[in-house]
Amino acid sequence: NLTDRLADTFKNLRGKGKLSPADIDGTVREIRRALLEADVALEVVKDFTGRVRDRALGDEVSKSLNPAQQVVQIVNDELVAILGGEARRIQFAKTGPTVIMLAGLQGAGKTTLAGKLAKWLKSEGHTPMLVAADLQRPNAVTQLQVVGEQAGVAVYAPEPGNGKGDPVRVAKDAIKEANRKQYDVVIVDTAGRLGIDTEMMKQAANIRKAVDPDEVLFVIDAMIGQDAVTTARAFQDGVDFTGVVLSKLDGDTRGGAALSVASVTGRPILFASTGESLDDFEPFYPDRMASRILDLGDILTLIEQAQKNFDEEESLKIAEKFATDTFTLEDFLVQMQQLKNMGSIKNMLGMLPGAKGMREQLENFDESEITRTEAIIQSMTLQERRVPKLLNGSRRVRIARGSGTTVTEVNGLVNRFEQAAKMMKTVARGGTPQIPGMGPI
Ligand code: GDP
Ligand code: MG
C-alpha cells in the first residue's frame, strides 16, 4: 500500500549524507509510483511530485544536516498543503438556523453522516434537526428516522404515505419548522443515484437554491479510487459544495481519494467518517491525514529528527542574536512558527498505536495563543518588528485592529518580548538574569 511504498523509498535515502540530483529524481519517481498505486489522480500526482522535486533540489535540502530527513519533511509539508493546510470547521449562520445540505452518490454515506453530524453537534451544545429530503428510495425516510432516533435528535419528514412528495418543498417547510421550534442547525439529507445523472444533480441544485445553505457538504466514499475526481468535479459543476466529507475511511484505504478531491476541487475536507456506528466520526485534520498516509514509527522518527536538526541550527543563530542585542520581533515570529510545527508533530505522535492517552493530552495544546501572537506580529511593519521601540500608542491601536486583538494583548506581547530579550541578553553574555520582582538569583 501507499504507506509501505513511501516507507521503502525513504529507507533507501537514509544514511546518505549528501543527495545527488539522481538520488532525488529516483525518490520522486518512487513517490510518484506509490501515489499512482494508491489511486491518486494523475494530474494531482504530477503537480505534487513537481513541487516536492523543486524543493528537494533546493537549498533547504542541500544545506540540511540530514538531507534524507529533510526530504521526508518536505513530502509531509506538501501533503498537508494539498489536504487543505489548516483544518476548517463548520461556518455557522449569524442569525437563524445554520443550514447544512448533504450531497453525493447513493451509498456514499450521506444518511449515516447526517446522524453522525447531528450527534456530534448535539454533544457540542447545538440543537440540530434532520430533514428527510431523499424521497427517491423507498426506505430513505425511515432510515433517517432510525438514525435520528439513535442520535437523539428531531427528524422532519413528509407525512407517511406521502413519499412521492417534492423534496424542495420538504426542505423549505423544514426550515420554517426549525425557525418556529428554534433548532439551531438544520441538516438536509438528499437523494443520490448510483451514477452521476443530470436529473439528480438538478434536484440537488434546486434544493440548494431553495434553502440557501450555509454549508453544502459533498460526501464521498474514500474507497472510490480513480472515480473520485470525475465524481467530485460533476458535483462541483452541478451543485457546487463548500466542503467535503470523506466516508468509509475505516477500510484499508490510505487516502488516495482524499488527496485527489481536496486538490482538484480546492474545497476543504471538514470531516472523516470511519465506520458504521454513529460515533465513528471525527473532524478532519490535514496534518493527521498526512501522517496517516506517511504512517509508521520509522518515518515519524525521521521527521522528528529533521525538526530537531533544524531547531539546533536556528537556536545557535538566535543565541548569537541575543548576545549582540539584535534579536527582533521578526525572530520572535520565526520562533513562534517553529512552535507551531512542533504542534503538528505532536498530532502525528498522537496517531501512533498505543499513544491514545497521550493524544488526548496533546489535543489540549493551545495553538490559538500562538496564532494570536503571530497575527499581532504580522500586523506590524517590518520597521516595527525590527525596532520595537517605535511602537507608540497609536501604532499599537492600529496593530490591535489589524490583528483582530486588543491593545492590551498587543501590550502584553511587547512586554513579554522585551523581558525575554533582556533576560536572554544577560544569559548570552554569561551574566545572571534578573527576574522581575525577584531580585538577583
Ligand atoms: P447514502 O446513500 O449516501 O445515504 O449512504 P448511507 O448512509 O445509506 O450508507 C450506505 C452504506 O454505507 C450503509 O450500509 C452504511 O452503513 C455504510 N457506511 C456509511 N458510512 C460508513 C463508514 O464511514 N464506514 C463504513 N464501513 N460504512 C459506512
Ligand atoms: Mg441516504
Automatic annotation (TrEMBL):
Top-level class of the enzyme under EC nomenclature:
hydrolase
The UniProt keyword set, sorted, is: Cytoplasm, GTP-binding, Hydrolase, Nucleotide-binding, Ribonucleoprotein, RNA-binding, Signal recognition particle
Name the reaction it catalyses: GTP + H2O = GDP + phosphate + H(+)
The segment(s) forming the SRP54-type proteins GTP-binding domain are 268-281
Q: Where in the cell is it found?
A: Cytoplasm
* Comment, domains: Composed of three domains: the N-terminal N domain, which is responsible for interactions with the ribosome, the central G domain, which binds GTP, and the C-terminal M domain, which binds the RNA and the signal sequence of the RNC.
Q: Could you identify this protein by its name?
A: Signal recognition particle protein
Q: Which organism is it from?
A: Salinibacterium xinjiangense
